[in-house]
Write a structure and sequence with these properties.
Blueprint (H helix, E strand, L loop, with lengths): L14 E8 L4 E9 L11 E9 L6 E5 L5 E5 L2 E3 L6 E4 L2 E5 L5 E6 L4 E6 L4 E6 L8 E2 L13 E2 L5 E2 L5 H9 L42 H11 L3 H10 L2 H20 L15 E8 L2 E8 L3 E4 L3 E5 L2 E2 L5 E4 L15 E6 L8 E6 L3 E4 L3 E3 L12 E4 L9 E7 L3 E8 L3 E4 L3 E5 L4 E2 L5 E4 L3 H8 L4 H32 L1 H14 L5 H11 L1
Antiparallel strand pairs: 1-2, 1-12, 2-3, 3-4, 4-5, 5-6, 7-8, 8-9, 9-10, 10-11, 13-14, 15-16, 16-18, 17-20, 18-19, 21-22, 22-24, 23-25, 26-27, 27-29, 28-31, 29-30
Protein name: Sushi domain-containing protein 2-like
Pfam families: C8-3_MUC4, Sushi, VWD
Main location: membrane
Length: 524
């Protein structure tokens, strides 16, 4: 055991004990301790935790216990609860967090007290975290918390047992004094079992001098010292149980406790009251912060902020409440907006009713996206309007970038290599009307760009131009010559052409196909 002031000691009771009481909030944490099963036929004279039960004023009763299958069960007010992986569930003034599998749960109470329970095959470990303002109000096996290790073991009668007492005195004169009575128990019991089933005040554990630990089994001692190092609690558990794995569980738990102490130097956020009459809320937890979103049922109006947040222990407000809506009405409001849509929620224009606004594609909403009729008969804000959005502008063979301010959008233009800009390199759009003050520029091919491109590819531009020109002139001259000769021949002997035509027509029927082709060739 490690007390709230950091004093280490051993206690191996057999029964149910008060681990922690916080008087100012009525918080009780109880633990059930049972002997380990016999090992190699040898009765082990040590006990371990197998269940924890806890509650505070106004909260549900939470019980976390081993279920015999290597996992943990969570019982709330006597009813077994099932949890999904890594699930957070709110109960009355207490929140349960399941971490990954069925072997680790955290119970965080409205007061800020948190209990982390972790299960292993045959035993459980626990860690308690609590706000510092509960100092000097604690008792139980976790001791009196006042940062003074000289007065640690507070007894139920209000006196203190000397902190330097040996393990036997701590067992009989302190630990057993915190055994619970049947009427005080927070645990539930299966059929045929009761508080008495788990109580054996005559159980005789092994008593060890923590400052001078001696192992009869030297092989076990070597294993223990190799596994435990300087952890006295680990060495004790190995000596008492003969199992280094149990010792390592204790060692790791103490290390985790120290890490938690280091982390919790930063103030944590205490959850708000889970009861929210006539309304509902959503809650989001992140590292170091909690945020609540509140809404009321129909016919009720929210009194207070709809969003309340906490960061590193500091809340920005308190939880609101839901009040009945009175007959007072707000002024009528236009439920249609130009270039947009509006829809109402609740009975307009009574208190608590709401109008939600949304703009069409290409328009931006200016103002609140919803307005609520308040209890005093006024709207939460003015009706918004839809403003045309500045359209995107692009240019061929160029690029566009934008800078935006509250009232303007500026488009900046650049041309790609080989092109020059014609026009302004930037234009302005006025957000109030969504129009550009000028047309975008254009990117035109720069002078000498083609020649430069051809030269870069190894061509002789001038030689190609001359060659192409000469070729075209030669082809044109040949075409003119052919046409001229053809016309001249046709017109030189018209009589002969007529006779030949007549002869061809009369002889056509006597000529074969091949012969006709020959005649045509000849006359051509």
């Amino acid at each position: 055991m490690v007390t709230l002031d950091g004093v280490e000691y051993t206690f191996n009771g057999y029964g149910e004990y008060t681990l922690l009481k916080v008087y100012t909030i009525g918080f009780h944490l109880q633990g059930r301790m049972e002997p380990l099963p016999a090992r190699d036929g040898r009765q082990i004279k040590a006990t371990v935790y197998t269940a924890f039960a806890m509650k505070e004023n106004g909260s549900d009763t939470i019980e976390i216990r081993l279920n015999g299958r290597g996992f943990l069960d969570v019982v709330v007010n006597g009813q077994l609860e099932n949890f999904d992986d890594e699930q957070t569930v709110d109960f009355k003034n207490v929140m349960i967090i399941k971490e990954g599998n069925n072997t680790k749960y955290s119970a965080i109470f409205h007061s800020g007290v948190a209990v982390i329970a972790e299960g292993f095959t045959t035993l459980m470990q626990f860690t308690v975290m609590m706000p510092k303002h509960f100092k000097r109000y604690t008792s139980g096996l976790l001791g009196y918390w006042d940062d003074n290790k000289n007065q640690e073991f507070l007894l139920p009668n209000g006196s203190f047992l000397n902190t330097s007492s040996n393990s036997k005195s701590l067992h009989y004169d302190f630990g057993l004094k915190w055994a619970t009575q049947a009427h005080e128990s927070l645990f539930t019991y299966g059929q045929g079992k009761s508080h008495q089933t788990y109580s054996n005040p005559n159980f005789l554990p092994v008593f060890v001098d923590m400052n001078n630990m001696v192992f009869e089994d030297k092989v076990l001692e070597r294993k223990a010292r190799s596994a435990c190092g300087n952890s006295v609690q680990c060495l004790f558990d190995v000596q008492a149980t003969g199992d280094t794995n149990i010792g390592l569980v204790t060692k790791n738990s103490i290390q985790q406790l120290q890490e938690i102490i280091n982390i919790t130097e930063t103030k944590g956020c205490i959850p708000l009251d889970a009861n929210f009459a006539n309304g509902f809320y959503e809650r989001n937890d992140s590292e170091g912060s909690i945020t609540y979103w509140y809404r009321c049922q129909p016919e009720f109006i929210l009194n207070g902020s709809s969003i309340v947040s906490c960061f590193q222990g500091e809340w920005n407000g308190t939880a609101p409440s839901c009040l009945p809506i009175e007959a007072k009405e707000c002024p009528s409001v236009e439920t249609k907006i130009q270039n947009g849509e509006a829809r109402s929620r609740g009975r307009l224009p009574t208190a608590g009713s709401e109008v939600l606004f949304e703009c069409l594609e290409g328009y931006d909403l200016v103002g609140a996206d919803s307005i609520v009729c308040r209890e005093d008969g006024t709207w939460s804000s003015a009706t918004p309007y839809c403003r045309k959005r500045c359209s995107k502008v692009t240019i061929l063979n160029g690029n566009t970038t934008y800078n935006e301010t509250e009232h303007h959008v500026t488009a900046h233009f650049t041309c790609i290599k080989g092109y020059k800009m014609v026009g302004a390199d930037q234009i302005l759009c006025i957000k109030s009307n969504g129009t550009w003050t000028d047309a975008p520029p254009s990117c035109q091919l720069a002078s000498g760009a083609v020649e430069h491109l051809l030269d870069s590819k190894g061509y002789k531009t001038k030689a190609i131009a001359i060659g192409v020109t000469l070729s075209l002139m030669i082809i044109l001259a040949l075409c003119i010559l052919v046409v001229y000769l053809f016309i001249k021949r046709k017109s030189s002997n018209p009589k002969k052409q007529a006779e030949e035509s007549f002869r061809m027509e009369n002889e056509e029927t006597l000529l074969t196909k091949d012969e006709r082709k020959k005649v045509e060739v000849v006359y051509l």
